[in-house]
Design brief:
- The chain is 14% helix and 40% strand.
- The chain is mostly beta strands and 170 residues long.
- It folds into 2 domains: 98 residues, NusG, N-terminal domain (Alpha-Beta Plaits, 2-Layer Sandwich), CATH 3.30.70.940; 48 residues, SH3 type barrels, CATH 2.30.30.30.
- Strands 1, 2, 5, 6 and 7 form a 5-stranded antiparallel β-sheet that branches.
- Strand 8 and strand 9 form a beta hairpin.
Length: 170
């Protein structure tokens, strides 16, 4: 994963359903740089809460190449890819700043890192556990990195302590 090589831009490719890993593997095998930002997501399944890695942008993957060399046709014909996102005849580059800022927020494997700094009053979404996908407000941050949040549950506010790694800013 590199930010930018001379003449190379980042593009957004639409994936076929459930083909993120297949497309990523096939693009890398062809020599393309790819970026597939992932996040942990907790969902109820069979009465239990299951945490799994999911694409941050379901259905899309970033691909870097030099458009003047015509490589985009190769991307369009890659197994797992539907097409490159375009406005007109040729694919449209994604602003480099957007991709580089996303990369800075992810680890080497593309996993979205927890926010660096939280402060009281921030709106956050819980990403794990029984309160996954609930929106809350940061109340206080304890020295042990425990974050106390206020959540609206059944018409009243409830105070809950969670780890900073279980929160994503909204």
């Amino acid at each position: 994963m590199t930010f930018h090589d001379r003449g190379t831009n980042w593009f957004l490719a639409q994936l076929k359903p459930n083909c993120a890993n297949i497309a990523d593997k096939n693009l890398k095998r062809q020599g393309f740089n790819t970026f597939l930002p992932m996040e942990e997501e907790t969902r109820p399944r069979n009465g239990k809460y299951v945490t799994a890695m999911r694409p941050l942008f379901p259905g899309y993957i970033f691909v870097a190449f030099d458009v003047t060399r015509g490589f985009w046709r190769t991307v369009n014909s890659t197994h797992g890819i539907t097409r490159l996102v375009s406005f007109g005849k040729e694919p449209t580059a994604v602003p480099l700043d957007l991709v580089s800022q996303l990369m800075l927020r992810c680890d080497a494997k593309g996993k979205l890192l927890p926010p660096k700094l939280l402060k009281p009053g921030d709106q956050v979404m819980l990403t794990k556990g029984p309160f996954a996908n609930f929106v809350a407000e940061v109340e206080t941050i304890a020295p042990d990195r425990r974050v106390w949040v206020l959540m609206e549950i059944m018409g009243g506010q409830t105070r809950v302590a969670v780890g900073a790694d279980q929160l994503r800013t909204v």
